[in-house]
Amino acid sequence: MGRYLIRRLLQTVVILWVISAITFFLFWITPANPALLICGKNCNTETIATVNATFGFDDPLIVQYGTYMKGLVSPTGRDIGSEGSERNCAWPCFGESYQNGIPVWDSISDAFPATFWLAIGAATIWLFFGVMLGLLAALRKGKALDKLSVGLALFGVSFPTIVFGYLLLFLFIVKLKWIPFPDTANAALFEVGPVKWLQFYILPWITLALVFAALYTRLTRANMIDTMNEDYIRTARAKGLGEGTVIFKHGLRSALTPIVTIFGLDLGGLLGGAVITEQIFSITGLGKFAIDSVLGNDLPAIMGVVLFAAIFIVLANVVVDVLYAVIDPRVRLS
Amino acid sequence: MTLGVSEDLPPDGGLPADGLAETAEAKQIEGRSLGQIAWARLKKDKIAVISAVIILLIIAVAIFAPLIVKINGFPPDQFNKLDSDGNPLLNTRDGGIPIGGLWGSGTSTEHWLGVEPQNGRDVFSRLVYGTRVSLLVALGGTLIAIVLGTVIGMVSGYFGGWVDTLLSRLMDIMLSFPSLLFIMALTPVVADRGQDLLGIPDDNRLRLGVLMFVLGFFGWAYLARIVRGQTLSLREREFVEAARSLGAGPMYVIFKQILPNLIPTLLVYTTLLIPGNITAEAALSFLGVGIKEPTSSWGRMIADASDWIESNPLYLFFPGIALFITVLAFNLLGDSVRDALDPRAGRS
Amino acid sequence: MTESVTTTASTSAGTGKPFLELKNLQVHFPTDDGLVKAVNGLSFTLERGKTLGIVGESGSGKSVSSLAIMGLHKGSRAKVGGEIWLDGAELVGMSVPEIRRLRGQQVAMIFQDPLSAMHPFYRVGDQLVEAYRVHNEVPKSVARKRAIDLLDRVGIPSPDKRFFDYPHQFSGGMRQRAMIAMALMCDPQLLIADEPTTALDVTVQAQILDLMMDLQKEFNSAIVIITHDLGVVAQMAQDVVVMYGGRVVEAGPVREIFYRPEMPYTWGLLGSIPRVNRGGDHRLKSIRGTPPSLINLPKGCPFQPRCDYQQHVEGHSCTGEVPDLLQIGTEDHRVRCHIETGQRKKLFTEQIKPNL
Ligand SMILES: Nc1ncnc2c1ncn2[C@@H]1O[C@H](COP(=O)(O)OP(=O)(O)OP(=O)(O)O)[C@@H](O)[C@H]1O
Ligand code: SF4
Ligand SMILES: [Mg+2]
Asked: How far is B58 from chain A (nearest CA, A)?
């Protein structure tokens, strides 16, 4: 187990390194002159030269990559700026924004909590409803409830987030006025209290959860139907166990195991930003930060947020693998 | 946000090419291939037929968009200020919202679905043209993903060894990318590069290509994994062994013997990818990194309309409904195709 | 159809009714392709302390019948008809809660494939403990003691350690034993063993059969043993039922079936067992053709499409009508075939026996 973990973590480091390299070179070979982006309207040959020197844009690409990686790896971060006027960019240094000079890491850590709450809340909702509906459908296979769940699930996966989000927004905020227009200030739970916080998050949660809930309904249903046809379920019945024990102890246990894996990966993916939901409900999370950076051509910010999101996905992979081995005794970590 | 298509696809791709042979019914319906059986099942499936008809209609709309727009007479990019009687369409004092019509959308006998606030472009015409973008990008992206995934998966599974190791790692890495974020970030960059390399201006013709490319590029890895697995097991089967012992080259075996057996899997995956890519294109255009003005795209229309959600909700709903129906139709058909190809269906 | 094969002349004392009696059991599965008629009028009886062997090729309905005795078709789409009497109670019409009390306790089953029949996520020991505690309100420690005890008796080495293993950590033979231990946890009066020794090597097979016979002596249980292996039947059972296409085609005491079989299908089965003492040029014969479709059962005798002896029947009865299961002689030997008894005997002694 310990050995496996170490090997797995090493693998993770390699994958992250490859991703960082690919990301860096993909974004950095853009012909757009980054200096132009930084000095903006005040650009002239002189300012451009200064900027280039300051940010090392004149250096060969590989040197720039080395500098960038140093900031990510070295505990002291790295220095930014030309000789004489350097400032330290503390670890983990993703560079500074071209748009406003703020260290990218600061923006990321500011944006993260909003995304975190969005993802966690949505995950709770979709897990609960997805598993429940899927389970009911499987147990009533072929009956009305099953058909309803299957229909709802199909509806859910077909509802594009942009459409569903605005539908909710229109219904509950514009038309019924049950919920006030989203105000970013309300994202902070400890400052505004639970009521405003819930009001702020409830629609985004539902929006984000819908597609996943639908997918999990299908998945739970399919897994549960397969599981209930397994020989060991028949054995459980042959022992004289009650149907409740058969379903929950013997059936659901197996049916949920693959769902744990997928849940880990989905959640990991969302912690890097739920771009569309954040955009619709003006949540200043990582997704919004990402899209703003993309639209502003803010390379260090884009790189930072993409790498940050990749870290979550890669880590989620590791967590899920280990978790799977814990749940399923047949999987050996070696 | 459903770029990862994977979830309800069984992990092994679900469709061993010969799975049907094991069922009792194969003994019954001897001589009929999986394809024929699936086709027969599909034709009997009402939902499949209805959704196929809807999809054909949508495709027809896309193909005949210029003709359709001729009927109502408003090109999608034309700014309309006045109706045919010379009355203003837009309330210039009130931020340019349409005058009259259902729920302040400016619907009328001339502008069936109303006009755009501020510009007065005809919503119906824009919607019709948006179909083109939506389908083109989704189908193109799907095609690229399927071709890449199939070829890479087959090569990886067939040749094994270091080729396999390398390609498998590549698949792992591709699957570790935060795809929507990455696609979003990369689209402008690729467009930029394309402009530079190909000497084409960054207009929407380039953008269309870029979107297809990016969606395809991030969509192949999962399929490749499945294809690799199936190729591995197909490679060991007698008919492949036999062909190889008779001296058939790898290209012959891969394309003539393995590929036909992968078709059910590819079909299933295609039906999953298309609606996913339609949603993705809309999302990208919505975020402002996809199709740009003046070409109309449903995602762009939704983004524009979101500013008017209070005064003119219908402007938001028309593209929303179009998007929803299209995705739903593809999903319904996809579901039926999957069921029809499932050798276990109809049993137990 | 009132055909019944009574296994022994004596019936259980007192009630006058046999311990287990199947009367015209039918199990049909509606599927998209049609009605799968897996069992069509199966009847037999079995007494305490006795063993009945059921033989027949794959798909003849052996497992489906035994699941019906356990009531395990309840709640599925299967349609079960006929009667099953166990110790004076009728099982086909019984409600699920009622039959649940019998499962494991009065009737237990050893399933065909022990790897898939055990839950992969729970320890073998815990699965045994669970089987005991459903019917006995005892603390875990007591149940655990019993489980380890039984694992020991079925010949699992160091059972106190193996108790904590998962099924996949057991070898095939050990899983089979653990499965048997699980079935025996509550001292069932009727044990159904569905191919308990298939895929085991001969030594292990012999041990397991011995074990079942020991246990039978100890608790005077009745055993139904389902197998393809006629050797196992010869060793274990007093009576045999030969199934074909969901029906009994021949039934009777073991020596009758082995030494005086009269049904062409049974001849085929006997001809297909390998024997050491068989002469050099005698080839092992398999029965030609394939098992019948259970959706469209052949008209007439179910074995007709594969039968080589139809010329011994007058007219077209073989293709026309299903032969009845008729008793021959005194020994409770029943056969379903249109050929005249005398002719069958002649055919067997002249054509079949020399080649066996
Ligand atoms: N749930 C079901 N639905 C449809 N058909 C079924 C079902 N269960 C069993 N059958 C069919 O019933 C027939 C009898 O099956 P059964 O398992 O009893 O055979 P068996 O005699 O035990 O064979 P084997 O020796 O291979 O175990 C088979 O043709 C099988 O396909
Ligand atoms: S009844 Fe006819 S077909 Fe059936 S076993 Fe007897 S001879 Fe053969
Ligand atoms: Mg069986």
From this structure: 16
Q: Is A143 on the interface with C (CB under 8 A)?
A: no
Chain C residues touching residue B348 (CB < 8 angstroms): 31, 77
Report helix, strand or coil for C39.
strand
pLDDT of the residue at A27: 76
Ligand 1 within 6 A of CB of C294: yes
Element (H, E) at B337: helix B313-341
The three-state secondary structure class of B163 is helix
Do the chains contact at C130 and A232, CB–CB below 8 Å? no
Verify whether the Cβ–Cβ distance B331 to A159 is below 8 Å.
no
Backbone angles phi and psi of C29, in degrees to 5: -115, 115
Helices (H), B86-219: 123-159, 161-176, 179-198, 204-217
Residue of B nearest to C76 (CA): B348
Q: Is C295 on the interface with B (CB under 8 A)?
A: yes
- Among A186-200, B34-48, C4-18, C215-229, the least confident range: C4-18
Percentage above 70 pLDDT, chain B: 84
pTM above 0.80, yes or no: yes
CA of A89 to the centre of ligand 1 (A): 71
Closest CA to C240 of C209, C261, C219: C261
What number of other Cβ atoms are within 10 A of residue C263's Cβ?
28
In angstroms, the CA B79 to CA B100 distance is: 18
Grouping H, G, I as helix, E, B as strand and the rest as coil, residue C334 is strand
Interface pTM (ipTM) of the complex?
0.86
Q: What's the pLDDT tens digit per position in C232-270?
A: 888 889 999 999 988 899 999 998 888 888 898 988 888
Cβ atoms A286, A273 nearer than 8 A:
yes
How close does chain C come to A80, measured CA to CA in Å?
55
Handedness of CA A313, A318, A324, A327 (dihedral sign): negative
CA pair distance A240, C101, nearest whole angstrom: 6
Residue pLDDT, tens place only, A55-79: 677 777 788 888 888 888 888 878 7
